[in-house]
Amino acid sequence: MSAKLEVRGLVKSYEEKVVLRDVDLDVARHEVVCLIGSSGSGKSTLLKCINLLVPIDEGQIVLDGEDITSPKVNPNRVRQKMGIVFQAFNLFPHMTVLRNITLGPIKVHDVSRREAEERARSLLDRFGLLDKVDEYPDRLSGGQQQRVAMVRALAVRPEVMLFDEVTSSLDPELVAEVLGVIRDLKEEGMTMIIATHEMGFARDVADKVCFLDDGAFLETGPPEQIFTRPVEARTQQFLQRIVDAGRL
Amino acid sequence: MSTPPDDVRGPGLFGPPRRARRQREEGARGAIVAAVSTVVVFGLIIWWVLSSENWPEVQQQFFNPEHFVASFPDVLGGFWLNIQMFAIAEVLILVLSLVLAMIRSLRGPAFFPLRILVIGYIDLIRGIPIILLILLLGFGVPALQLPGVPNSEYFWGIAALVISYSAYTAEVYRAGIESVHESQRMSGRSLGLTQVQSLRYVTVPQAIRNVIPALLNGFVSLQKDVALVFVLGVREAVREAQIYTAGTFNYTAYVAAAVLFLVASVPVARFTDWYTERVRRKRQSVGAV
């Protein structure tokens, strides 16, 4: 299997604090990778680095064989191949759901307004949100907002999707509807990197689980290995705390 | 919709009825106290002014009905010019300052020279008294007699106002742009929008909403500062009043001009307060969800 995305020796620090130290990651086409680890371990930062939203200090990120961190690469073109969904939804509050979704296709991909709206409607329909098309984001529940944010990211037809703790700011009863969308995307063969605290979901949906500890991958493997036979003591501790909290 | 919004709903809906009645009675008592004390205070001030021995003289100089009527048509005609100049200047200011603020908000080393240019402009212009700019441009530039350069005092008066006010207003916009959370910019960029597109479609529309009260405040200020172009000989309201005063040695014409400025600015000031309050309430109700 050829790698869709490779991260090589990635180092990132904010001011004096090193957030990612020498991170390597291979993501194959159609593979679903889950990043787990406690808050502050660097999961979000890694996703933002991959989407070129924050500059990296050292290393390489290779997408389809091209080093996208090279200064010669236009980051806007790279971002068109990747969608990212954030913990706090970050919908545009001054635009309707439809405008939120069509902004990218119309302005970035030169899709006609009519076609962009048609596409948006069919995506919204698929996710059971068609009746919300003219609402403003603050009229929607958290789960609905997060699903709209996913539709917005999908509307630019990305080849890789990045999810940054997309259920962490949702009420528990709304988590399932959002995770359901990700499960659907896996069915369709979307390549995904998912930072999550939902261990049950990660075990279920991941092809590969990476445990991030203090900015480095401590342990990587298929979910059954990480969740049932973790090798590293830190991984065992982390999972034990999750089990104690009744979350696995 | 039959349910009234929360703030209109009486306390009786949720509180026990007795408490509601007491609150209503207290409210009525408060209104009476306010009315009485207002009448007393203002009555005292008016009585003190009117009974002072110099009042007839003051009235003759500043509030003379005949002079008011005689000077009013010219002053009003001049004021119409103020309004026109204000309208032209305000539109130009709103556009130019937004462009300046957007340039100042661009990131990345490629935009460094542009940023420096804008920061330099803003610092320079904000440091120069507006009257000085008006004199410099209004008398200085026409004196050069450059071919193709207009030498109308209207043109240069408005230009000076636009140059000066756009520097201040750019800072208002910039504060608005910075008040929009970073995550909004990031989502815009993550969709593949360029910096400028993300500013234009995502950040700036939200920023403008946040700074409308401050922009309106600038409106009020400009309405009055337009009068400064009188130093160039433009026959606007203050100039007309001055001409009348010079012929009669009576200052009622100035008061007539002042009344006109007040009629124009007080509604905007009240509207600004009303709007700010409305936005504040809306924010609070959203924040409570």
Structure class of chain B: mainly alpha
| Helix fraction bin of chain A | 25-40%
Helical element count of chain A? Answer: 9
Assigned CATH class of the largest domain in chain B:
Mainly Alpha
Instruction: Estimate what percentage of residues of chain A fall within beta strands.
Output: 25-35%
Q: Could you tell me the number of beta strands of chain B?
A: 0
Mean pLDDT of chain B: 88
- Low-confidence stretches of chain A at least 5 residues in length (pLDDT < 50)? none
Oligomer description: heterodimer
Low-confidence stretches of chain B: 1-13
CATH fold name of the largest domain in chain B, please?
MetI-like fold
Mean pLDDT of chain A: 90
Along the chain, the helix and strand elements of chain B come as HHHHHHHHHH
CATH topology of the domain at 3-91 and 164-244 in chain A: Rossmann fold
Radius of gyration of chain A: 18 Å
What is the number of independent domains of chain B? 2
Largest sheet of chain A: 6 strands, mixed
Structural summary, described in words:
The complex is a heterodimer of chains A (248) and B (289). The radius of gyration of chain A is 18 Å and the shape is globular. Helices cover 38% and strands 25% of the residues of chain A. Chain A has a domain at 3-91 and 164-244: Rossmann fold (3-Layer(aba) Sandwich). In chain A, α3 packs across α4 (113-126). In chain A, β1 (3-14) and β2 (17-28) form a beta hairpin. Chain A has 9 helices and 10 strands. In chain A, the strands form 2 sheets. Chain A has a 6-stranded mixed beta sheet with strand order 6-7-8-3-9-10, sandwiched between helices. Chain A is α/β, with parallel strands linked by helices. Chain A has helices at residues 43-50, 75-79, 97-108, 113-126, 142-154, 172-187, 199-205, 223-228, 233-244, and strands spanning 3-14, 17-28, 32-36, 58-63, 66-67, 82-85, 160-164, 191-195, 208-213, 216-221. Chain B has helices spanning 17-51, 55-62, 65-105, 112-126, 130-144, 153-179, 182-190, 195-225, 237-248, 252-288. Chain B has 289 residues and is mainly α. In chain B, α3 packs across α10 and α8 (195-225) runs antiparallel to α10 (252-288). Chain B folds into 2 domains: 11-51; 66-288, MetI-like (MetI-like fold). In chain B, 80% of the residues lie in helices and 0% in strands. Chain B is flat, with a radius of gyration of 26 Å. Chain B has 10 helices and no strands. The chains are: A alpha/beta (248), B mainly alpha (289).
